[in-house]
Amino acid sequence: MKIAFVPIDNRPVCYNLAKDIAEIDGCIELFIPPRKYLGDLRKTADIDNLFLWLENLPEVDVMVIALDTLCYGGLVPSRRGKVTLDELKVRIERLKPILDGKKVYAFSSIMRISNNNCNEEEKEYWKDWGKKIFEYSFSGGTINKGIPDEILRDYIDTRKRNFEINKIYLKWQKEGIFDTLIFSKDDCAECGFNVDEARELELLGGKTKTGADEIPLTLLARAIDKDIKVYPEFSEPDYTDCVSNYEDISIARSVYAQLELCGFEIAKSKTEADIILVVNNFIKRQGEHVMGWGTESGKGDLVFPHKPYCVADVRFANGADNMFVNRLLDNIDLKNFYGYAGWNTSANTLGSLLAAVKVKWKAQKYNNDAFLKLQMIRFLDDWAYQANVRGMIEGPCDIKDLMRPYEDVLAKIFDYSKPIKYSYPWNRKFEIEISF
Description:
The chain is of the alpha/beta class. The chain has 15 helices and 15 strands. It has two domains: about 1-220, no CATH class; about 225-435, no CATH class.
């Protein structure tokens, strides 16, 4: 199967993870643009070269497209860029003939509203007015705590510009350009302008989904036609109606939405399921490693199944649950193990995990080394680094000695002994790149 894949940007979870997942099945040929063409925290994607790359692709079976990359130059530039609506309309018209007649799975983001005064991924004024703009949005525009008119006008105009672009994509979908089109709700609260925009797109016939970074991987999974019945088993079944941080829906709804979009069938019982999705969920409120938020301890009485299973670790945002991972590694059954994830938001964890499950399940040309490599990366990143080592450092630095104890544990379990290198692709400690 030949798949063309355009990521959101050049982060490891957007670029490398797609390649690592595809490599699990040697019959999947993934066409992905050179990494140098993609954007990062400060650089907008090289849009002209990306279009040239697309225009010169060999014939493929499926295209998975992050539309923000080709329209704005990436997810971050979609919020920061100053390109006008008219200029963007001209730009995306170049895309339409490329997609015409192809089987296309695409997504476009609904502009997020972060609830802090960090402008690292936002416009400059966010460092002074971010929280107040969030509160203004959350109130439906009724509470303005002194936001200057010119800043508020710029923010609203940027939102309107992006919303108009999404309505154009929705028109394209009705013309048959897309097989699947998703509008993502990135870092979403329960109320706000982004929630209102999502509702309006839905009324117009659009499909929205909470999440962002994982959606190209979810669409990759959707494009792979395999019949798989999955039964979700929650570690805290009495708390599945609780809402994750940075999301606007319950953890149960998030799980079922990811399964549906990936193209899985929901099993009614563990007995009829092909695979058990073990969800390590939270009680009342999700913990958060970055913000230092704790969460109530669970019962810890979950028994890992004696049939194929995968693990979504969402008790904390931005990293693993240490107690749970220790139990998992003590009891892991590699014969039935289909993968682990525990990074960033619940949606990020679920979507990326399920994409790998879909590829691994009865792969036509299964590559076990690729699967083990993927698991080493996820545990080293989500558990070793995000939940532990990251909290020990002030900023990007040499973490080899801090990571070594975790490397030793995982190398024995996964029988993986290749040398490991760590780097900081966006020169911040929020994400690391793990390479062998």
